[in-house]
Amino acid sequence: MGGHELSARGAGTRALILDAAVDAFAESGYAAASVREIAARCGLTHPALLYHFPTKAALLMAVLERRDSVGAPGGGMDALHGEDLLAHLVETAARNAAAPGIVELFATLAGEATAPSHPAHDFFVARYASLLGMVERAYRELAEDGRLTPGVDPADAARRLVAVMDGLQVQWLLDRSVDMAAGVAAQVSAHIVTPG
Amino acid sequence: MGGHELSARGAGTRALILDAAVDAFAESGYAAASVREIAARCGLTHPALLYHFPTKAALLMAVLERRDSVGAPGGGMDALHGEDLLAHLVETAARNAAAPGIVELFATLAGEATAPSHPAHDFFVARYASLLGMVERAYRELAEDGRLTPGVDPADAARRLVAVMDGLQVQWLLDRSVDMAAGVAAQVSAHIVTPG
DNA sequence: GTCTATATAGAGATAGAC
DNA sequence: GTCTATCTCTATATAGAC
Predict the structure, then answer these.
(1) Could you say which of B25, B40, B70 is where a domain stops?
(2) Whose CA, among A43, B58, B73, B157, lies 20 to 30 Å from A167?
């Protein structure tokens, strides 16, 4: 198919830059990582990188948006309901244990991005609103089936489940012997009553 | 008593610097905050600040260590046992809702400091080890009294309670309508069985 | 104890050659 | 699409006057 090797290599370079940016932002955070360092990681100079992404903030947003389209949570979770959605979060935690870079990225940025002036602030506000909304819905569906522990508020349970996921990620980054998936699973089953 | 106004003012300046440093590190993180900005906040130039704290990293450590001696958790928690210790964590969460600066500081730094090269890395490793140890002990004491929900592992419950505290702090920083204390209280009561 | 001035280094971003 | 060279700004830290 008719030879567009230059633009193909262009797309490859973009992906290469995004991979390097994930690592750099994960290790040092957004503020401390430098465009020069990211460019060096893929054998480029920093003007070459800025040809593909006009600013450092644009690079960060591209990193975050690519991750959201590829990984969980966010992709395909709308189709899941009730216990299936909660089980999906346990799987996500298990999968994350094999991807330290992604966990570092989000744990580091979540803290930084609480500042309203941070370029990823709006992204994280939207991300949490979406995630919390979906998990709350799952708990409500569980409640309709009489499978939610009595007296538990679905919105509160959702907040705490998401908090457990985030908090265990930090603990896991400080001590890799922490079992994130087991913790999330325990948190899920703490509020589910098995009928019978 | 007996006129050491210069050294008294010296101590006052130190405290002034630490207060400004808390705010700056909280708002921007350690990497993004600058010594100049912190000095300006208390009407000093940056060499004046560096007279009191030799390096930026030393300033960060002083901030963290002062907070540990003043605030919770860490101070006086060894004397608390079982349910009292867990109740103390609920009170801490309630108190934190009135101190956004402290919450921002620890939420921002916890992410940054997962990197082993971060100046506060060892501090956070030690802090989590200590905190998790105390909470786990509280859950074990609860279990001995038959008040821990059967089948719940004290170490796992401790990890998840600390994770809820941390995770709710991030959510609260993004949306101040989140009730941190209520969430922590709900997490505590989720694993306590009231005998009778 | 605080200042001005400076050393040294690195940041993000742009101009223009190839 | 990538480079070299450079602009401008800011950073941490130090020297030395007061």
Answers:
(1) B70
(2) B58
